[in-house]
């Protein structure tokens, strides 16, 4: 005898859609908080970010004085002024929503498009800063992920990074534990399988801080900052000298976004938008950010992670807040025009006028001969296999 069940009459059932949205994956945008901010006023006739620095202190013009004898004007101390400049570029993206979607959607797609546009542009800004500090700007074609692997080799303000062997002061590149990884190259870091030589250790932090101090890098709020991948921070957290941020309080100093602790007084900030290369014997591969990293570990071909040690005034960016006319803007178009006479499409766009300028990279170009080394790119492996 036939029995009618819920399986028999399946067409009457519909899936239940929860209106509780799951959280989207968000990247922590960290680097902008350490940059010098330059306002770009409206109608000032400038499409570049420009910053200036007077020459370093010198005793070359100090001389003994004779009683009643004036110093000859030929022996006066001359001031020098360096101008650092980089053209701004405009970036943008658009999300299109149909009228049918907006009339029938279960979720507020317009609101989500607006939020997504803001998050995308924040990630873009963080990536531009990161790539500039690495030494090359990634080139992004339309539709290509912001984490793509293309390389633009020409830097418009001639701030190519110099790391010549024997340079004094040394350049910005550091590999592994410099005290034990005696060959300071990308290839040597890849081929060495020893954690003490290739990971971020307390000794390596101390060496990089000493290097910045020796270069007279000004401090940020009384110290230096390490912006690094969570896996590198994890290696440091296992050290007995690690101090958790929750244990030492701010002591009158502001907490940084993403700060997790300190070691030897160097504040450690985690960033999830790290520049990760795949270990290889090819030096150029250190400038390729991998979309599909190999994973952590000490073996050859594993992830090599770039961390940043910052002194103050390491890089500059336009001010992105306030009434600046070039600040990020969300543009929503929901009116008919000749291209959409029936108003079938609503667009949500975001635009930004931006550039990141290295202010301290040990440059030796003709235009930037007095550019100091006030930040370091410290590449390491990680002992975790994550």
Give a brief outline of the structure:
This protein is an alpha+beta fold. About 15% of the residues lie in helices and about 20% in strands.
Task: Describe the overall structure.
The protein is globular. Strands 5, 6, 7, 8, 9, 10, 11 and 16 form an eight-stranded mixed β-sheet that branches. The chain is built from seven helices and 16 strands. The chain is of the alpha+beta class and 386 residues long. The longest helix is centred in the first third of the chain and has 26 residues. About 10% of the residues have low confidence.
Shape: globular
What is the element string, with H for helices and E for strands? EEEEHHEHHHEHEHEEEEEEEEE
Number of helices: 7
Strand content: 15-25%
Helical coverage, percent range:
10-25%
Structural class: alpha+beta
User: Over all CA atoms, what is the radius of gyration?
Assistant: 26 Å
Distance between the ends = 59 Å
How would you state the average pLDDT, rounded? Answer: 81
Which residue ranges are poorly predicted, with pLDDT under 50 across at least 5 consecutive positions?
137-160, 164-169, 363-370
Largest sheet: 8 strands, mixed
Number of strand segments: 16
Structural topology:
Elements: E1 36-38, E2 48-54, E3 81-87, E4 89-98, H1 99-104, H2 109-134, E5 173-175, H3 186-191, H4 195-198, H5 202-214, E6 225-228, H6 230-237, E7 243-244, H7 245-248, E8 259-263, E9 266-270, E10 275-278, E11 303-310, E12 315-318, E13 329-333, E14 345-354, E15 357-358, E16 375-380
Parallel strand pairs: 1-12, 5-16, 6-9
Antiparallel strand pairs: 2-3, 4-14, 6-11, 7-8, 8-9, 10-11, 11-16, 12-15, 13-14
